[in-house]
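Minutes, project check-in
Item: structure for the 288-residue chain
Input as provided by the requester:
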Amino acid sequence: MIRLEANAKINLGLDVLRKRPDGYHEVKMIMQSITLHDELELEESAESGIHLTCDRVTVPTDETNLICKAAALLLQEREIDRGVNIHLTKRIPMAAGIAGGSTDAAAAMKGINELFQLGFSLEELKERAVRIGADVPYCLMGGTALSEGIGEILTPLPEIPDCHILIARPDLEVSTAFVYGNLKVAELTEHPDIDGMIKSLEGQSLEGIAARLGNVLETVTVQAHPIISKLKEEMVRSGAMGALMSGSGPTVFGIFNTLEQAESAYHKMLEGRSAGTVCLTRPAQNRS
């Protein structure tokens, strides 16, 4: 039996540089894993095939799940005909812009590689992970990183100073395809200061990081769902040093310097019922 944690992520900065001829968008992002996580348990099965179960009935457990796709990719490449049982304990909200599916896929790749002693290096796993999803290579690495290309070019960065992060996900669905499909890259007039963010990380300035939070996808998602702006404003009023939408949304996070402020904002958010899912978390270190 192998047990693995699959950490969620937030985007401290997300910029889109251009749309490529193949339809993919080139990005420049700063990714940060957080301690909010799912758990995967893997063990060999007497029956061939991939058998996925989950503690939430709303989570698909067939071949459409990224866990199954990731496991199948490695098993087929190494021509492994033995079966595997995988159980997912789901804590990360689904379709939330914090890589819940991608991090599960990354954990599955690590688990399959270890369980069947396939011998893939981390770099080899990352090369294959981009076939599953743009965030999966990063989720294999975790920690604080600059992500470029379509998400497959990763550069480790100094860890963010310790802080408290409030996560709030409103009860609405956001399609990543819709957001990128409606993003007018050529018309963007403001871009996040990614280089300045990197300097703030190097200088371990939490104030500098919070001041440079930025996500160009807000130009689409916030217009469609104004509740996202309200959640950001609510966090700042409650003492957040800065607040931002993560990924394509709808999750909003706020960075707090003290636990007291973060807990106060957490309770206010719960009382206001403006978000269906609210939780407190912290930055997670690179454990690859």
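Outcome recorded: The chain has ten helices and eleven strands.
No further action items on this chain.
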